[in-house]
Amino acid sequence: MADSDKSVMKVDIAASDRPIWSGEATYVVVPATNGAMGILPDHEPILSLLTEGKLVVTEPSGNKHSFLVRDGFVSFDSNTVTVAVEHSSQEEYGFPEEADGSPKGKA
């Protein structure tokens, strides 16, 4: 049994009109209506509304992806995080990645 398999979650982030980012993560922070909420692997199942704010995904490599999101929800069950939002933009936070998570000429 590989412990490393349990230390990651599958993450899918989508806007109302397109997929935004998909991959594995060790930590996700979402802007829940009651404040920022951190999600780790093996968290209890959740379903929460999101408000406007910063969503941050930390990959197993330590790379972070940040998105400005507005209005949506997050669900977590069986180490799968699903985020559906009305709007998302990565550029507004000045990050070099496209909104779909692909790098822009990463050095």
From TrEMBL:
Looking up Pfam families in the UniProt record yields: ATP-synt_DE_N
Q: Name one GO cellular component term.
A: plasma membrane
The chain positions of domain ATP synthase F1 complex delta/epsilon subunit N-terminal read 9-86
Which domain of life does this protein belong to? Bacteria
Task: Give the matching InterPro entries.
Answer: ATP_synth_F1_dsu/esu (IPR001469), ATP_synth_F1_dsu/esu_N (IPR020546), ATPsynth_dsu/esu_N (IPR036771)
Q: How does it sit in the membrane?
A: Peripheral membrane protein
Annotated compartments:
Cell membrane
According to its UniProt record, where is this protein mainly located? membrane
Region annotation (Disordered) ranges: 87-107
Keyword flag Hydrolase: no
Which keywords belong to this entry?
Answer: ATP synthesis, Cell membrane, CF(1), Hydrogen ion transport, Ion transport, Membrane, Transport
Q: Which GO terms describe its molecular function?
A: ATP binding; proton-transporting ATP synthase activity, rotational mechanism
Q: What does this protein do?
A: Produces ATP from ADP in the presence of a proton gradient across the membrane.
The entry describes its oligomerization and partners as:
F-type ATPases have 2 components, CF(1) - the catalytic core - and CF(0) - the membrane proton channel. CF(1) has five subunits: alpha(3), beta(3), gamma(1), delta(1), epsilon(1). CF(0) has three main subunits: a, b and c.
According to its UniProt record, which protein family does this protein belong to?
Answer: Belongs to the ATPase epsilon chain family.
Protein name, please? ATP synthase epsilon chain
Q: Which organism is it from?
A: Parascardovia denticolens DSM 10105 = JCM 12538
